[in-house]
């Protein structure tokens, strides 16, 4: 029996010829050949190319000058051949491949088709070549004759497949990827959501990687409603793979790349959550409806004929956060999770940092083009207003911040045992994704978990190094491959050394058992250091508690400008009192006697008073080099923004929310209740102790460097995106920091050997 090969796509009904065999490729794209034979494929009597026969071929291999090289898909002959072949399929939707009716070859017959059209590139380049083929009289007449013959069951003239569409299909064929658009996934509530499914073309069963979110499942993100939308995304996809002319960061916003994962034996399922794209329902971001749809999509993927029953989730930001909510609903087929730049407690980690409204994230989210795309009439809950109307964790737990809330669902992870790889941010322009990765790791009670602390998590997730590690994790949990990935240390820390430099350090637990929690004490007496030319009035930060009582007073009032672009200060640059480099008070230490690696959980303890009934405390922990200049510990996120402050770590607290949660608080990391019953405005003359959690972080401080702690009334540019400024307790107010033996304040940092 002759060997059988397959033409990827599959492309069925294409003529082929070898020295010993001829016929049409089968519905599975099969052809017969003998070993070592050269073969050709034909449309009508037009030979389109030749290639040495093999068990698997794809169309880009039959043009010798391309020879299967995906970097040469823009070859004019290959492009035009592919455009015509894909147009000749019975349907214009190629989810099941391209099936050419046998009668097509008779209609084409002996008419000669010029696929090359060697246009003058000095004039209009490839656009001229595309137009020449589209307008070629032979091609135009052929499409008319095909329509008149009713060979497709439709007498309307067909439009040629576009070059971008054809080349993207060629690429998927070459990589062995089948794409199925707008697949309906049924929900337990009787509705459905739509998904794009990408599967390996080779027969077999495979694990699936599923995500479910609001951004849109089309290439890059957003949704497809019209033919113009489709072509827009086809061009984006082509540009991405040909040198990324559009500077796109992802195939699809914050999800795995199909071109990287599917050829290695994974299906990828991208789901538009209820209300997003063309999925019906109310769009309620971060809510229960989305979590339930995600759960149902996981269960659907785990029971398909092409599935091996194991499902993993991988995503960044929103598409990381949503994983925890889905996992809390216990889908049976969820076997492993990779959550990059994630959050769990959506009250404190996203909406209200330290009880202060994270105000600027939402307009930035919308301005960045991440507003959920909706096909048809929008039905979206006003989650921003609901958040603003809910200043406490228990404002309305059925609506917001509860484990089954309509929006901003903070899931209960107490019985989630799914293996987890969490990635926490060490620095980010916004105030999110820093606390959350640590919380996900610590609060998910699975014995099988890992944690990375990355600086550039946004880009690093797509690096070859990260992809290899994440594939190993999923290979182990979803394919059962014993590869040793779980024998490696569970904690990997990118220890920042300043100005974008760092090194990797692995640990066996988090927090690190050998940590020494060292204190530096606040002393409101003037410091001897005058190295910073911006502000002359530094106060002391010492290794010994001060022996006398002093106080530092600062204005709580600043002047604000309208909303500014990402990375710009909101404070009025014309107002010296609002300059974030001088607002509030700053304490600075003596030069360090030894190098010190900071890794883990820190806190600030203060005694405070105000002439108003509340205080917003914003703490920046900064590092001053031995050249008296600040060391940049925010790396790539602030390069090119000279007005930004670049802290090692930071923290926030609204003083009326100072009540500590006795269950969640530890000696190294305070946690606050943020419930209505514990709301405690300040009384006149009242001095109160407060504890502020610092974002868990990592960095190496060098001998001779100084620690600087800024305590400010507003973000300025020290903390990323801006928080709410409430003039009712800022304007005209004076805040006071008390230091001394009876009001001993300090910063506590985690130092490891």
UniProtKB/TrEMBL annotation:
Instruction: Enumerate the UniProt keywords alphabetically.
Output: Hydrolase
Which Pfam families does the entry link to?
A: Peptidase_S15 (PF02129), PepX_C (PF08530)
The GO terms this record gives for MF are: dipeptidyl-peptidase activity
UniProt cross-references to InterPro entries, sorted A to Z: AB_hydrolase_fold (IPR029058), CocE/Ser_esterase (IPR005674), Galactose-bd-like_sf (IPR008979), Xaa-Pro-like_dom (IPR000383), Xaa-Pro_dipept_C (IPR013736), Xaa-Pro_dipeptidyl-ppase/CocE (IPR050585)
Limits of the Xaa-Pro dipeptidyl-peptidase C-terminal domain: 471-748
**What is this protein identified as?**
Hydrolase
Q: Which organism is it from?
A: Subtercola boreus
Give the lineage: Bacteria, Bacillati, Actinomycetota, Actinomycetes, Micrococcales
């Amino acid at each position: 029996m002759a060997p059988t090969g397959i033409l990827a796509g599959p492309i069925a009904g294409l003529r082929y010829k070898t020295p010993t065999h001829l016929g049409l490729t089968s519905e599975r794209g099969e052809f017969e050949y003998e070993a070592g034979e050269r073969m050709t494929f034909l449309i009508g009597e037009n030979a389109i190319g030749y290639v040495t026969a093999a068990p698997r071929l794809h169309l880009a291999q039959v043009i010798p000058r391309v020879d299967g090289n995906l970097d040469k898909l823009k070859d004019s002959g290959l492009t035009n051949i592919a455009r015509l072949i894909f147009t000749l399929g019975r349907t214009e939707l190629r989810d099941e491949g391209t099936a050419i009716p046998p009668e097509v070859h008779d209609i084409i017959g002996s008419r000669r088709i010029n696929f090359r059209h060697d246009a003058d590139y000095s004039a209009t380049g490839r656009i001229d070549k595309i137009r020449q083929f589209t307008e070629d009289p032979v091609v135009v007449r052929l499409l008319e004759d095909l329509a008149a013959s009713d060979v497709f069951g439709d007498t309307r003239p067909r439009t040629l497949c576009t070059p971008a569409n054809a080349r993207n299909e060629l690429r998927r064929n070459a990589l062995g990827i089948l794409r199925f658009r707008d697949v309906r996934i049924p929900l337990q509530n009787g509705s459905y959501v739509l998904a794009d499914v990408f599967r390996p073309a080779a027969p077999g069963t495979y694990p699936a990687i599923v995500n479910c979110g609001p951004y849109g499942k089309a290439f890059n993100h957003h949704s497809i409603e019209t033919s113009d939308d489709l072509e827009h995304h086809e061009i984006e996809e082509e540009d991405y793979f040909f040198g990324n002319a559009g500077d796109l960061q992802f195939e699809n916003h914050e999800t795995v790349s199909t071109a990287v994962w599917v050829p290695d034996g994974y299906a990828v399922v991208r789901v538009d959550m209820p209300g997003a794209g063309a999925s019906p329902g109310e769009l309620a971001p971060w809510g229960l409806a989305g979590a339930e749809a995600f759960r149902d999509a996981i269960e659907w993927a785990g029971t398909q004929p092409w599935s091996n029953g194991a499902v993993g989730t991988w995503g960044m930001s929103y598409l990381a956060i949503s994983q925890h909510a889905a996992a809390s609903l216990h889908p049976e087929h969820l076997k492993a999770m990779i959550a990059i730049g994630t959050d769990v407690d959506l009250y404190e980690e996203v909406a209200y940092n330290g009880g202060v409204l994270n105000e600027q994230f939402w307009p930035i989210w919308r301005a960045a083009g991440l507003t959920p795309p909706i096909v048809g009439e929008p039905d979206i809950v006003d989650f921003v207003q609901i958040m603003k109307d809910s200043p406490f964790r228990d404002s309305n737990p059925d609506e917001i911040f509860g484990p089954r809330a309509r929006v901003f669902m903070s899931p209960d992870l107490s019985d989630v045992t799914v293996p987890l790889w969490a990635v926490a941010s060490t620095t980010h322009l916004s105030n999110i994704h820093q606390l959350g990765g640590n919380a996900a790791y610590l609060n998910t009670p699975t014995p099988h978990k890992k944690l990375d602390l990355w600086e550039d998590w946004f880009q690093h997730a797509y690096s070859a190094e990260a992809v290899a590690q994440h594939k190993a994790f999923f290979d182990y949990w979803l394919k059962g491959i014993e590869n040793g990935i779980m024998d490696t240390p569970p904690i990997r820390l990118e220890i920042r050394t300043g100005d974008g430099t760092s090194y990797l350090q692995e640990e066996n637990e988090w927090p690190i058992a050998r940590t020494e929690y060292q204190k530096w004490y606040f002393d409101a007496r003037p410091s001897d250091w005058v190295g910073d030319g911006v502000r002359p009035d530094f106060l002391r930060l010492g290794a010994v508690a001060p022996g006398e009582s002093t106080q530092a007073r600062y204005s709580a009032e600043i002047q604000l400008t309208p909303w500014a672009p990402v990375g710009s200060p909101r404070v009025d640059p014309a107002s010296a009192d609002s300059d974030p480099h001088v607002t509030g008070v700053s304490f600075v230490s003596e030069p360090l006697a030894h190098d010190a690696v900071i890794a883990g959980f820190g806190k600030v303890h203060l005694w405070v008073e105000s002439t108003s009934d509340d205080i917003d405390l914003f703490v920046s922990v900064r590092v001053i080099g031995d050249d008296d200049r600040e060391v940049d510990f925010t790396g790539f996120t602030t390069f090119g923004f000279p007005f930004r402050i670049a802290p090692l770590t930071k923290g926030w607290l609204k003083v009326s929310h100072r009540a500590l949660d006795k269950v969640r608080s530890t000696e190294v990391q305070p946690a606050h209740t943020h419930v209505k019953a514990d709301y405690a405005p300040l009384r006149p003359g009242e001095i109160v102790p407060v504890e502020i959690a610092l974002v868990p972080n990592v960095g190496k401080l060098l001998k001779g460097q100084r620690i600087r702690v800024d305590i400010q009334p507003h973000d300025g540019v020290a903390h990323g995106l801006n928080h709410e400024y409430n003039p009712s307790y800022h304007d005209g107010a004076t805040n006071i920091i008390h230091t001394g033996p009876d009001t001993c304040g300090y910063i506590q940092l985690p130092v490891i050997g």
